[in-house]
Specification:
With 224 residues, this protein is mainly alpha-helical. The chain has eleven helices and no strands. Helix content is 54%, strand content 0%.
Length: 224
């Protein structure tokens, strides 16, 4: 039977690739509990996620902040803004942002005034309020990009790669593969992968992955 219940695992995984704060570090036991209780992430991958959590807990917050900026804010390969991997700085990205913002608005989500609507942690927060099968389908649309980011992180020795491996496996996609896998630079060009069909364009009744990504904070859907 297909589950239609929303799952907070996606929000928990998104928190682990969000900008580090004291509040996040203090919430890690709750994040771990959600991942274990919902069971979307298998035991082996939960172990890798726990290694990431231990590293976050054991590292000075200032160092975590510096590492985060160096890892995610410098360079395209590990960028968490998904449209950057598809559209770069082209005009198409602007229209994709508008379309994505409309999807959030229709679902009752609000972004902060400085938030961009293609930020992966926010997409995952959005998906945590959506039916599971819908969330899985939207993440499958992103699988190529998630895999490229995850492999780039692994090549840099970052334990954050575990989040991407877990996301892929949770939606039934091939994970990051063996640790001796290909260098991300050897992967096909991301623009070419989606040349025939937009990776994130919303479809009728079922917004695609990029129809759900944003800044760090999303309000829950408006009550019916």
């Amino acid at each position: 039977m297909k589950s239609t219940h929303p799952m907070k695992t996606f929000q928990a995984l998104g928190a682990l690739i969000s900008y580090p704060t004291r509040a996040l570090i203090e919430a890690l036991p709750d994040v771990h509990a959600v991942i274990v209780e919902e069971g979307l992430v298998d035991r082996t991958r939960r172990g890798a996620i726990k290694d990431l959590m231990h590293e976050l807990q054991a590292t000075d917050l200032l160092d975590l902040e510096e590492q985060y900026v160096a890892l995610f804010d410098r360079g395209r390969a590990t960028a968490l803004h998904l449209f950057e991997h598809v559209h770069g700085d082209s005009r198409d990205r602007g229209q994709a942002m508008v379309d994505l913002g409309q999807v959030y608005a229709a679902a009752g989500f609000e972004l902060g005034p400085r938030e961009l609507p293609d930020f992966l942690p926010a997409m995952l927060e959005f998906l945590s309020y959506r039916p599971l099968e819908e969330a899985r389908e939207m993440l499958r649309d992103c699988a190529h990009i998630l895999r490229l980011i995850g492999r780039a992180l692994r090549e840099r020795g970052s334990t954050h790669a575990a989040v991407f491996d877990a996301l892929l496996a949770a939606v039934g996609e091939e994970g990051l593969g063996a640790t001796t896998g290909p260098n991300p630079s050897d992967e096909p060009d991301i623009d070419a992968l989606w040349a025939e069909e937009p990776a994130f364009g919303p479809t009728a009744g079922n917004p695609s992955c990029s129809a759900a990504a944003s800044g760090r904070g999303c309000a829950p859907p408006a009550a019916a």
